[in-house]
Design brief:
This protein has 434 residues and is α/β, with parallel strands linked by helices. The chain has 3 domains: 194 residues, Rossmann fold, CATH 3.40.50.720; 89 residues, N-(1-d-carboxylethyl)-l-norvaline Dehydrogenase, domain 2 (Orthogonal Bundle), CATH 1.10.1040; 133 residues, NAD(P)-binding Rossmann-like Domain (Rossmann fold). It has 18 helices and 14 strands. The strands form 3 sheets. A 6-stranded parallel sheet has the order 3-2-1-4-5-6, sandwiched between helices. A 6-stranded parallel sheet has the order 11-10-9-12-13-14, with helices on both faces. Helix 9 packs parallel to helix 12 and helix 11 crosses helix 12. The longest helix has 32 residues. Bound molecules: uridine-5'-diphosphate-xylopyranose. The site of uridine-5'-diphosphate-xylopyranose has 19 residues, from helix 9.
Length: 434
């Protein structure tokens, strides 16, 4: 069977490489020739632990191919996965232009029965639209089946998640298509849920919205802990033992970021509005997250009032550890707020610094290590819980900073240590140390 993946972004590339690794012959297509050239040389355009090794291994085994020639990618494919981006439009809706362009291009090259699998995160009803776009354009004697097959992988552990996912969702109206997809995924040995197309599309949004809800919920409990004197770490631990609640996604922090939760919650809310449905919980989840991202800056503003000439360090720029992705990262909001206040900003991130430099150029300073970044600082914001950042000891902050004031958005340190060292320490959902 010849399988093609359209789009070599996060989802497409990881899916293609992992499916090749379990023995399938995979062609990954992208219109970006430079990207394809890099990939053919074994170089990944995204930072993802373990990905380059798997690319090289499967290129050498000749199971994995990269091309920017649509003819080569689509003409004899039995099954084509669409895995292009669906970024956010200004009004919060999902931008479907890349998905549609991919469908139009595919329709120009296929000349035999083909299964089209939509992996991109798309609003309910989009698979049907894709089917229409392709069917309108191909010879009517060709049978086109469309299936929705959303992905649930996390950046930074995308390969692990692909091989060890909790479930695979296949939405299709055709038994044969379901069987074909089952056979593709069979080597992964992961439970498969088969649904109708619209339900599969909804499962993706509902799952991300639920996880985002869990985060905003625990962040609100944290905010209430701060008022009442409870400790969110202890509260979350005590809640997490209840199997119905589960201990994952209960880490209070500086709000969720990244390429999925912010955009998917807004897209689902937009979809609800289109159906005249007031999705009150989701609306609150989005608003809580907006507040949570600003929270530490607002605390600092309350304490310092004037930032002019203050040396401020931001530790961690990626939206979470093990990725260079800065999309919707709280660090960006904090840097922008600090720049407006004329602060002198120094930042450090083990991987994402280049991406931030493209945004802020010489408006901020870039340090080579976490320790270098905090030298002579008047205050430090801890935004991403990288190992390289958590390894700094509170004693090092005390020794290095001009005055030890820390705003910790990831609860990296025990309160008693900050107290013992005389550090002013503000974290999330815990008593301030002043
Ligand atoms: C997420 C989903 O987990 C994945 O299933 C989906 O396919 C894509 O979106 P990702 O965005 O890569 O994956 O990262 P994830 O690890 O889920 O974290 C998302 C955000 O939530 C991060 O900003 C993280 O810091 C935050 N988070 C996560 C918390 O604040 N607390 C938690 O307990 C967990």
């Amino acid at each position: 069977m010849k399988i093609t993946i359209a789009g070599t972004g996060y989802v497409g590339l990881v899916t293609g490489v992992c499916l090749a690794d379990v023995g399938h012959t995979i062609t990954c297509f992208d219109i970006d020739e430079r990207k394809i050239q890099e990939l053919n040389g074994g170089k990944s355009p995204i930072y993802e632990p373990g990905l380059e090794d798997l690319i090289t291994k499967n290129l050498e085994a000749k199971r994995l191919h990269f091309t920017s020639e649509p003819e080569q990618a689509y003409a004899d494919a039995d099954c084509i996965f669409i895995a292009v981006g669906t970024p956010e439009n200004e009004d919060g809706s999902a931008n479907l232009s890349y998905v549609e362009q991919a469908a139009i291009m595919i329709s120009e090259y296929i000349h035999k029965d083909t299964v089209i699998v939509v992996k991109s995160t798309v609003p309910v009803g989009t698979n049907e639209r894709i089917a229409r776009i392709i069917k309108e354009r191909v010879d009517p004697s060709i049978n086109i089946e469309v299936a929705s097959n959303p992905e649930f992988l996390r950046e930074g552990s995308a390969i692990h998640d692909t091989f060890n996912g909790d479930r695979i969702v296949i939405g299709t109206e055709s038994q044969e298509t379901a069987q074909l997809l089952r056979s593709i995924y069979e080597p992964l040995n992961i439970p498969i849920v088969t649904t109708d197309i619209r339900s599969a599309e909804m499962i993706k949004y509902a799952s991300n919205a639920f996880l985002a809800t869990k985060i905003s919920f625990i962040n609100e409990i944290a905010n209430l802990c701060e008022k009442t004197g409870a400790n969110i770490e202890e509260v979350a631990e005590g809640m997490g033992y209840d199997k119905r609640i589960g201990n994952q996604f209960l880490r209070a922090g500086i709000g969720y970021g990244g390429s999925c939760f912010p955009k998917d919650t807004k897209a689902l809310n937009y979809l609800a509005k289109q159906y005249d449905f007031d999705f009150r919980i989701l609306e609150s989840v989005i608003n809580v997250n907006k507040y949570q991202k600003d929270k530490l800056f607002l605390k600092a503003k309350e304490l310092f009032q004037d930032f002019t000439g203050k040396k401020v360090t931001v530790l961690g720029l990626a939206f979470k550890p093990n990725t260079d992705d800065i999309r919707e990262a709280p660090s960006i909001d904090i840097i922008e707020s600090l720049l407006k206040e004329n602060a002198q900003i120094t930042v450090f991130d083990p991987i994402a610094m280049g991406n931030v430099e493209e945004l802020f150029h010489d408006k901020i300073n870039y340090a080579n290590s976490a320790l270098e970044a905090i030298q002579e600082a008047d205050m430090v914001f801890i935004v991403t819980e990288w190992r390289e950042i958590k390894e700094l000891t509170l004693a090092q902050y005390k020794e290095s900073m001009a005055q030890p004031v820390i705003f910790d958005g990831r609860n990296c340190y025990p309160l008693h240590e900050a107290k013992e060292l005389g550090i002013q320490y503000y974290s999330i959902g815990r008593k301030p140390v002043e």
